[in-house]
Input
Amino acid sequence: MFPRFTDFIAPGADRYSILAELLEEMGFGYSSIALGAPKGRQLRHFLVFPRRGQGFHPGRLPTVLTAHYDRAEGSPGANDNSAAVFMLLEAALKMRDEQQRNALIIFTDKEELSPGEGIREQGSYGLAKRLQKTALRDCRYFIFDACGSGDTLVISTMADHLLKNEGGLEAARRRQTVKALRDDALQTARQIGMKKVLLAPTPFSDDAGFLQAGLAAQTITMLPSQEAAALASLLRTKPACINALVSRDAQKTGETLPLPETWRIFNSPADGPERLTPKNFDRVVAFACALCRS
Output
């Protein structure tokens, strides 16, 4: 397992401070962006540059890889979303060794919402509003969420459902961008020989906040192959379960619909390290690095 992972998922852990210390120890340059939230708590996001003191390739915008570092209260958050945070740290190390200059990593705060909160309270919404005022508005955004359990890469189609009732040129542009991001993800998976790949809607993630704020983003996750196969079958026979995922009611609906166990334990005490499959971590790291080369 990754260094300091146990500290990161411990009860009461100051995850912001641990992540900041790790970035310093690993020698990464980073900026911390503090943004206000509608209910008063200050949100703190990390922008991490794999090559300290180096600019991006001239004429090329970076590929942005994101993962939320917060977790639901009462949950270790091992898979949702600690594993992906540490995978992107590992990817940053590899990209630095490869002298890649076309990557930016963002660790977001407040992906998890409290009861009664909506998309505009999500940290990624305010962050995307800020990013739209910079050159980063035109980057490719890939969100890594719950990537620590399983051997099957799931490329989310949830953005299609979030955007399906929106009209106008702006919504059409975002749909086109999401399709391009999805095609890039599929092509990258093929290039590095990932054979187990599924296109499917996935639970509510930072893509919701990004899309609501006007930035297209593609979510990436992982599932055990048996759960992925069962999900594919479920979606063919009971497409109504997609609405449960969109509305964040996947756990409750899971009582009557056989949604993947990996998803049903999100935000619960059961999301511990024993659920992770470290033997598959390298392929996620390789996929993240390859996205930044494409």
